[in-house]
Design brief:
Structural class: alpha/beta
Bound molecules: nicotinamide-adenine-dinucleotide, (2E,4E)-2-amino-6-oxohexa-2,4-dienoic acid
Oligomer: single chain
Distance between the termini: 70 Å
Helix content: 25-40%
Strand content: 15-25%
CATH superfamily of the largest domain: Aldehyde Dehydrogenase, Chain A, domain 1
CATH topology of the largest domain: Aldehyde Dehydrogenase, Chain A, domain 1
Number of helices: 16
Strand order of the largest sheet: 15-16-17-14-13-19-20
Low-confidence stretches: none
Number of domains: 2
Number of strands: 23
Mean pLDDT: 98
Shape: globular
Largest sheet: 7 strands, mixed
CATH class of the largest domain: Alpha Beta
CATH architecture of the largest domain: 3-Layer(aba) Sandwich
């Protein structure tokens, strides 16, 4: 029998009143995974109402310690059901088990613990002021939850990126309505079971499924009783959501797209630079917002670096997620593959040298129906090419030579985006100098995707607004209220 994925509203799994569903298909072989219920206005209203009511129920009366304890229990229950979360995430995304078991699911759990700790340990400000009568006054700030937070998520790291927002939102005492990506609805729904099991009160965590425009995403982000919207996804979608938020003057947090550069200096440790670049270009089949799509390599090592990067791309074996030698999964969908392939075609049309890949791999049997694509490396395109300027979100990069440090910085910064960068050098002074000049929210030196969850995370320029992570998440998920006491 076909599985159904339901909404989670006020502590209960519910179907859409309209009976409307959409298909969730596997990127591995295009087989049907489940029919997903699509929320209409009625379900979104019910979820937002439940979230609003829950603010005034037992959840709203809990101490920070009680809430933190509950979030630790959520994390522990995810870990106890690790295999179920892993299977669900792998089925929805097609990513290798080796990746999801090391990154997606452990981080999905860790996001609850880290923010439970953060809220217990962050002080607020205090100022003592003089008054004309000499008695003085005291000011202190208190943090209060924003209220009902809409959480709109993408499909590339579904549980990880959703809990990255739900963890701090709940730690701060808010309630949430989550709209997972239509491509990857399952782990968000599964988390509802976890919430019930550990006793999170009904209405605190809600999930509605559906699409963006004229569907759950739009109904949620335009809802009058939503107090704040936290979004991760494409820049263009972020702009649409900011418009939707404007009439209600709602706070928004925007984690958006990128076209991230890596700079490899001739003094870099070649093996370290290659290992990190191979990961940053091809991990998760290139579907990581922080991933590298532009590589700038200093001329003396350009040929060797390109050859070895191309060899690494050719050696990446596609295959079923559970097979030990699988190095790369498929793209999320046929629709996304069409988009990525349109850039593969553009690169060829514009005269790129295709160092590796450039097409669709031959997959055997039922895998031939999946959305597989070859890891691809190009050289030879001008910096004005769409392939070098636009976010592709696939396993591909363009490599350009450079001659001076200034040129590398200029090329790296010549983009409307500003999310992440990687710099490879063994010259410490240069690492500090270049790192400080790159217009990005996060810059790695001799590494990539090394994440301390207490650090600020976010983008500059069209890659986003605001920072989340550690205390920065508290800035978004709480209001600071000043209390002034005349002595
Ligand atoms: P997307 O913008 O297409 O969709 C993201 C979510 O927004 C989905 O849940 C979608 O249903 C919803 N949505 C779409 N239109 C909407 C609307 N008008 N109103 C409300 N909701 C709407 O992004 P995607 O394709 O799922 O993810 C890939 C993109 O996300 C890439 O651009 C990538 O760079 C970006 N991303 C950024 C970060 C970051 O931290 N900066 C992290 C991961 C992914
Ligand atoms: O590690 C994180 O917290 C984070 N937000 C990663 C984003 C990855 C983008 O695809």
């Amino acid at each position: 029998m076909t599985k159904e994925t339901l909404h989670f509203i006020n502590g209960e799994f519910v179907r859409s009143a309209s009976g409307k569903t959409f298909e969730n298909r596997s990127p591995i072989d295009n087989k049907l995974i489940a029919k997903v219920h699509e929320a209409g206005r009625a379900e979104v209203d019910a979820a937002v109402r439940a979230a609003k009511d829950a603010l005034n129920g037992p959840w709203g009366r809990m101490t920070v310690e009680e809430r933190s304890k509950m979030l630790y229990a959520v994390a522990d229950e995810i870990t106890a059901r690790f295999d179920e979360f892993l299977a669900a995430e792998v089925a929805d995304t097609g990513k290798p088990v080796s990746l999801a078991s090391h990154i997606d699911i452990p981080r999905g759990a860790a996001n609850f613990k880290v923010f439970a700790d953060t809220v217990k340990n962050v002080a607020t400000e205090f100022f003592q002021m003089p008054t004309p009568d000499g008695a003085g006054a005291l000011n202190y700030a208190v943090r209060v939850p924003k209220g009902v937070v809409a959480v709109i998520c993408p499909w590339n790291l579904p549980l990880l990126l959703m809990t990255w927002k739900v963890g701090p939102a709940l730690a701060c005492g808010n309630t949430v309505v989550v709209k997972p990506s239509e491509e990857t609805p399952t782990t968000a729904a599964l988390l509802g079971e976890v919430m019930n099991k550990v006793g999170v009160p009904p209405g605190v965590y809600n999930v509605v499924h559906g699409f963006g425009p004229d569907s759950a995403g739009e109904f949620l982000t335009t809802h009058d009783d939503v107090d704040a919207i936290t979004f991760t996804g494409e820049t263009r979608t972020g702009a649409a959501i900011m418009k939707a938020a404007a009439p209600g003057i709602k706070a928004t947090s925007m984690e958006l797209g990128g076209k991230n550069p890596a700079i490899v200096f001739a003094d870099a440790d070649m093996n370290v630079a290659l290992e990190a670049t191979v990961r940053s270009v091809f991990a998760n089949c290139g579907q990581v917002c922080l991933g590298t799509e532009r590589v700038y390599v200093e001329r003396p090592i350009f040929d060797e670096f390109v050859r070895r990067l191309g060899d690494a791309a050719k050696a990446m074996k596609p295959g079923r997620p559970e097979e030990k030698d699988t190095k790369i999964g498929p793209l999320i969908s046929h629709e996304h593959r069409d988009k990525v392939l349109s850039y593969y075609k553009k690169a060829k049309d514009e005269g790129a040298t295709v160092v590796a890949g450039g097409g669709v791999p031959r997959m055997a049997g039922e895998l031939a129906e999946g959305s597989w694509i070859e890891p691809t490396v190009w050289t030879g395109l001008p910096e004005t090419s769409a392939v070098v300027r636009e976010e592709i979100f696939g396993p591909c990069c363009h490599v350009t030579p450079f001659d001076t440090e200034e040129e590398a910085i200029r090329l790296a910064n010549d983009t409307k985006y500003g999310l992440a960068a990687a710099v490879h050098t063994t010259n410490l002074a240069r690492a500090h100098r270049v790192g400080a000049k790159l217009e990005v929210g996060i810059c790695w030196i001799n590494s990539w995707f090394l994440r301390d969850l207490r650090t600020p995370f976010g983008g500059t320029k069209q890659s986003g607004i605001g920072r989340e992570g550690g205390v920065h998440s508290l800035e978004f998920y709480t209001e600071l209220r000043n209390v002034c006491i005349k002595l």
